[in-house]
């Protein structure tokens, strides 16, 4: 099923940059969402304190 969405020009340009020639914009969005690190993964890397991670989790 396909859905039409409207995005701002700057967002379109942000998505266009990482887009590979063989990818659709849906593919780009899917890839970027899947590759986004989870807060739990960041917390395990000791970049954030427990308190900072908890604040983000509740955000």
Q: How are the secondary structure elements laid out?
A:
Layout: H1 9-16, H2 25-35, H3 39-44, H4 50-57
How would you summarize this macromolecular structure in one to three sentences?
With 59 residues, the chain is an all-alpha fold.
Topology, number of strands = 0
Supply Rg: 16 Å
Residue windows where pLDDT falls under 50 for at least 5 positions? none
Shape: elongated
Helix and strand sequence: HHHH
- Structurally, the number of domains stands at 1
DSSP helical segment count: 4
Descriptive report:
The protein has 59 residues and is mainly α. The model has no long low-confidence stretch (mean pLDDT 82). The chain contains 4 helices and no strands. The radius of gyration is 16 Å and the shape is elongated. It has helices spanning 9-16, 25-35, 39-44, 50-57. The protein has one domain (9-57). Helix content is 56%, strand content 0%.
Notable features of this structure?
mainly alpha, 0% strand, elongated, 4 helices, 59 residues
